[in-house]
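Re: your question about Pyridoxamine 5'-phosphate oxidase

S., sorry for the slow reply, the queue was backed up all week. Below is exactly what I fed in.
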Amino acid sequence: MDFKDCINFANETPVCYLATVEGDQPRVRALGFWFADENGFYFQIGGMKDMYGQLQANPKVEACFWQPDEATGKMMRVAGEIEFVDDPDLKKKVLEDRPFLKEFGMTFDSPGLIIFRIAKGKAYFWTMTTNFEPKKFINFG
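Result:
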């Protein structure tokens, strides 16, 4: 397995779970995943969400991508630090990819349109078959 496998797995998984920290309390929520490429795992949120403040205070996160099957499925966990991305082309792309954002009044120059990515960190895959094996980390970034 290599980083390309991580990119493919993430792009095939429309919902992931993202954990942040607020003070000393972990917070996790399901998010509609945007996309992954050789530069990392990309997310879009609204600036009015609690998550935005949590990410500003502590950029360390972990994302869990899960693809179910008849048994337990396959999981990929990605841990790292996020970086906010202020790129007009990406903001236009997110509005094209997620037209519902326009219904909320978002435009590419809306201050509440927040894009971030996990650009560096480590990932690993889990299945029930590999449950007791040592983790095989894939470093990226």
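Residues 99 and 106 are 9 Å apart (CA to CA). Residues 3-140 form a domain with the Pnp Oxidase; Chain A fold (CATH 2.30.110.10).

Happy to talk it through on Thursday.
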